[in-house]
């Protein structure tokens, strides 16, 4: 009985594949010194470049969101008299978790713009060149900013200002800022990276202080306006029941104002303070060297095979 014509094709294919692999290996082996030398030179170039990059340090703080003070008396009043107060045009609130809102406020343009203006951020963020560990001083790039003249000297396109705009600084600031909440524990971590570890620590502290101060001021202003409105409503009403409600709300609002004025950590309580980090965050030069060696080794092998087959194709 005759066998099908395709039965012997599989062994031939496997043999050809094995032969192709051996041929590729022999090509690479014959050019091993060229491949190794090229990989070493290219990797050395990348490593040399990484040595010129400044070290980046990250400082972090672990925070516990403070529960709203309204979770006490105001929450009870909201349950009892919320409907009546709403009819009078007054929102007495209630318990709430505004952590996500506070995180977004920290990242907002308004908050960051004010932070840039209040804490002398522009030069330290946009013109910093290197941090001298021995002298513990930040070195400014004199091609961008002249310390002697106290003036921005960077080259810009026509129509642009030598001094970076608030949006430019905001864009860079946000890339170096990290504010995340652990969904499991509810704790918030604020981190900032900079070539100067002192600045990283200081700005994290300022961010915490500023968000607490901002939300405290807003709360006091809101409650003060609410009390003013309640007093106006008191003058208009003759109902003793409504007057009692307004007096109760005014009392609770006044308590909240007093609590806000004395509470330093109004929305975030510091669990772990930021420190001047001694270990750099990046660049990881060892990882750069290993990945570069692997990458350039693979690339040089592919280039070697490519030119080999190009030469063989031309010969044929």
What does this structure look like?
The protein has a domain at 57-272: Bacterial polysaccharide co-polymerase-like (2-Layer Sandwich). It is an alpha+beta fold and 316 residues long. The chain has a 4-stranded antiparallel sheet. A two-stranded antiparallel sheet has the order 2-3. The chain has a two-stranded antiparallel sheet with strand order 4-5. It has helices spanning 9-30, 32-52, 73-87, 99-107, 109-118, 122-126, 166-176, 197-236, 240-262, 285-315, and strands spanning 57-65, 128-132, 137-140, 145-146, 151-152, 177-181, 188-194, 268-272. It is elongated, with a radius of gyration of 33 Å. It starts with 8 loop residues before the first helix and ends with a helix. It contains 10 helices and 8 strands.
SS strand fraction:
5-15%
CA gyration radius, whole angstroms: 33 Å
Give a short account of the largest sheet.
4 strands, antiparallel
Helix % is 55-70%
Q: Which structural class do the helices and strands define? A: alpha+beta
- Coarse shape: elongated
The CATH topology of the domain at 57-272 is what? Answer: Bacterial polysaccharide co-polymerase-like
Query: What's the overall average pLDDT, rounded?
Result: 81
Number of helices: 10
CATH class value of the domain at 57-272: Alpha Beta
Instruction: Enumerate the spans where pLDDT stays under 50 for 5 or more consecutive residues.
Output: 1-12, 69-74
- According to DSSP, the number of beta strands is 8
The span between the termini is: 42 Å
**N-to-C order of helices and strands:** HHEHHHHEEEEHEEHHEH
CATH architecture of the domain at 57-272: 2-Layer Sandwich
* Neighbour order of strands in the largest sheet: 6-7-1-8
